[in-house]
Request: fold
Amino acid sequence: MRRTRRSGTAKATRISAAVAGSMALALGATACGGESPGPASGDGELSGQTVTVSAVWTGVEAKNFQKVLDAFSEETGAKTQLVASGDNVSTFVGSKIEGGQAPDVAMVPQVGVVQQFAQKGWLVPLSSKAEMETTRNFAGVWKNYGTVGTKFYGLYFKAANKSTVWYSPDALDQAGVKPPKTYAEMLKTAGTVSDSGTPAFAVGGEDGWTLTDWFENVYLSQAGPGKYDKLASHDMPWTDKSVVEALETLGELFGDKDLLYNGSAGALRTDFPTSVEQVFGPEPKAAMVYEGDFVGGIAKDQFDRTLGEDAKFFPFPAVGKGDAPVVSGGDAAVVLKDGKNQKAGMKLLEYLATPEAAAIWAEAGGFLSPNKELDLESYSDETTQAAAKELVDAGDTVRFDLSDQAPASFGGTKGTGLWKLLQDFLGDSSDPKATAAKIEAAAKKAYSKS
Reply:
């Protein structure tokens, strides 16, 4: 059965915790592990019922999601109980089902785990109303990622835009350059920035998942969505010419020691939070850092940067003749068959499919929604609005994080599989063809067991 690692938004939870540490807000009983207050208004159709929801979110993210749950309570009369699932959602939910304490709703941050749950018979197909709202409010690709076989199980409520390159405006201004529009321009811009005395890129290569995200953006743009899908499902080998070409393209950056702060060796000793600090911290070391929209939250919350002023992003640029990529991750809400209150759980998902529900967290911050009917003005700043607009405007060309669709042993395990082989490639990018062959060997082994 396919198992995968945590995706973009769940990564952001772990990342924020790693950087913030003791700065995370303490939650009261209503935020996590407790019940929401009774309804202040609404028709009370679910009065007396409690919906238990499990999610990976903690700290500020849990507090903000609770605001969404509280609004649901006001509308329906249902109480809600939010419980933390921890990183391994599959293990948590499985143990709860075995113990007769399954939550009614689970927030699942991987396509593969939604598939796994459905194949085990743990899920209830979503109601016609939830499906109708999803069809109306979301690009079709999001419904596809929540569908297993012919049945719709997973509603993607929270998403990430993982095609954002963050930069210090001062560093680019000092070098006399502007944000690039193409990958070739980005390499040229990086060279000019480095020549000005500031290394162009900080790369958190110690965390292998950052390197998979680099590859996915290059590959999606250069090879196109069709081949991306085939590679994600391993219906095409990693030795395909398109993979080798993408590695060659990525190697133009990874193999140029002058473009990376402390070179590739230094990048391999740098974790993701440190790479953000190297650009936006009190003593900047580099001009740019690539990763998802969650970089902005770290720059703002941990380093007191003002989004849109001293912390900006440009879309990951198009490679060659391809289109600019939009790679995403997300958290899908599912209703569990063994939950004690399926009816109320389904009502919650019908609510989460609406732009009104998304607007609550959007206003609170630290959130992107794939809901195309959500007014962009709901986001608190123009930078977040721009990241959300890019995500929504991509429509059906959005692609979910490829490594999060793979078996965990290949796409999401430290020290092995794709993470390790791309770290090796960062250290020595001289032979893309050999790297592709090693990746294919690892993929064959992992997919044969999935």
Remarks:
- Residues 7 and 33 are 23 Å apart (CA to CA).
- Confidence is low (pLDDT under 50) at residues 1-34, 36-42.
- The first strand starts at residue 50 and ends at 55.
